[in-house]
Amino acid sequence: MKSGFFFIIVFNFLAEASILSRKPKYFDRRFKLELLHPKYLFTWIGIFILVLFGLMPARLRDPIARQLARLVTKIAKKPISVARTNLITCFPEKSSAEIESLLKDNIENFVIILLAQSELMVRSKANVRRRVNLMGFEHVEQARAAGQPVIFIMPHVWGIEYAGLRLNLELPLVSMAKAHRNGLFNWFNNRMRSSLGANIYMREAGIRALLTELKHNHSFFYLPDEDLGPQKSIFAPFLGTVKATLPVVGRLAQAGNARVLPVKIGYDQHARRFDLTVMPAIDPEEMRGKEHEALALNQAVEQVILAYPEQYMWFLKMLKTRPEGEAPLY
Fold first, then answer.
1. If you ran DSSP here, which 8-state letter would residue 94 be given?
2. How far apart are CA 201 and CA 27, in angstroms?
3. Strand partners of residue 202
4. What is the CA radius of gyration of the chain?
5. Please, which residues have CB within 8 angstroms of residue 18's CB and are 6 or more apart in sequence?
6. Which of 5, 24, 28, 189 sits most deeply, having the most CB atoms within 10 A of its CB?
C-alpha cells in the first residue's frame, strides 16, 4: 500500500512539472575547440579581465568595484528601472530616498561580487573556506544522519555561487541552470559552478533528473522566486505584495525523502568575506497543499532576502505574473 502511494505521488508530481522537458542532460564541462572561434574574442577578453580580478586580493578589488558601480548606475537604465519597480512594490512603506539608497547599495554589491566570482574557479579550496564563513551546518548533518538528502532553498541573491561551492565542499551537490546564448560564457560559468564535481543540469532536464539525484543522496539548490508564469502557479503573500509561486518542492521532498533547508548568504564588506547560514528545516506539515506550500516558500524567500536586502537580484522580473485584473508592473 505504501509503495503504491509513493508511486502515485511521483507520477502526479512529474505530470504537474511537465512544463519542463523530461530528458535528463547536464552541461558538458569539457573544453571544445569551437570555443576558440573569433566570434568569442570579446568574451575571452571579458573572461581574462574577470580572472585577473579573481586573482586580486579583495582589499584591492573591492574599492575598484565601488568605483565601477558608479558607471553601472549610469548605463544600466533598464535593469535599474525594473529593480526600482520591484523595490517600490515590495517595500511600500519605504520612502523614495530609502528606495534609492537600497538600490545604490544593491548595484555596489553586484559589482563587488561579480568581479570576485572567478576566484571560485582559479583559486584554492582553502580560499573558498576562508572567504565563506559557514554557519548552521548542523542542520545538514542532522538530515544526512537521518539518511536524507537536502533541498536547499535560496532565491536569486548575488552570492549564490559562493553558497553553492562552499556547501559543495561538504556534501555532494547537483544544480540546474538555464543555458546562456553565448557558448563560451556558458562553458566558463558552468565550469566554475561544477569545479568541485557537481553536475549542472540544463533546465530542460526537468524535475525527473533532480528526483533521480535525490535517490542517489545528492542534494541541490532550488530557487523558488523565479516567475514561471500563471500555469500551475499559486498567488501567495510576498513582502508588500503577492507573488506567483510554483508549489512543487513539498512533493519533491516527500517523493525523494529530502529535508528542505533555507539558506542565506551575504557579503560583509568590512570583513571582506561572506557569511553563509543554513537555517532550520521547513516543517513538512507547512507544505501540505499547494496554497500552504506557496506561502511557506514565499516566507522562506522573504527571510533570506530580508537578511541582506541589498544583495538580492532585484533586476529580475520576479513579479511579471499578476493577479487577474491587475495592471502589469513592467
1. S
2. 6
3. 177
4. 20
5. none
6. 189
Ramachandran area for residue 197 (φ above 0: left; ψ -120 to 50: alpha; else beta): left
Count of beta carbons in the 10 Å neighbourhood of residue 306:
11
Full pLDDT tens readout for the chain, 330 residues: 444 444 444 444 444 444 344 445 778 778 889 999 999 999 999 999 999 999 999 999 999 999 999 999 999 999 999 999 999 999 999 999 999 999 999 999 999 999 999 999 999 999 999 999 999 999 999 999 999 999 999 999 999 999 999 999 999 998 888 878 899 998 998 888 888 888 888 777 777 888 888 888 889 988 999 898 888 899 999 999 999 999 989 988 998 999 999 999 999 999 999 999 999 999 999 988 899 999 999 999 999 999 999 999 999 999 999 999 899 999
Distance CA 157, CA 313 (A): 5
Distances in Å between the Cα of 177 and the Cα atoms of 25, 109, 194, 305, 307 are: 11, 22, 12, 21, 24
SS (H, E, C) 108-164: HHHHHHHHHCCHHHHCCHHHHHHHEEEECCHHHHHHHHCCCCEEEECCCECCHHHHH
Q: What is the DSSP string of 24-59?
A: --B---S--GGGGSGGGHHHHHHHHHHHHHHHS-HH
> Does the CA dihedral 328-224-252-293 come out positive or negative?
negative
Model pTM score:
0.88
Q: Determine contact, residues 147/216, Cβ cutoff 8 Å.
A: no
Q: Integer distance in angstroms from the first to the last C-alpha of the chain?
A: 50
**Integer Cα distance of 163 and 278 in angstroms:** 10
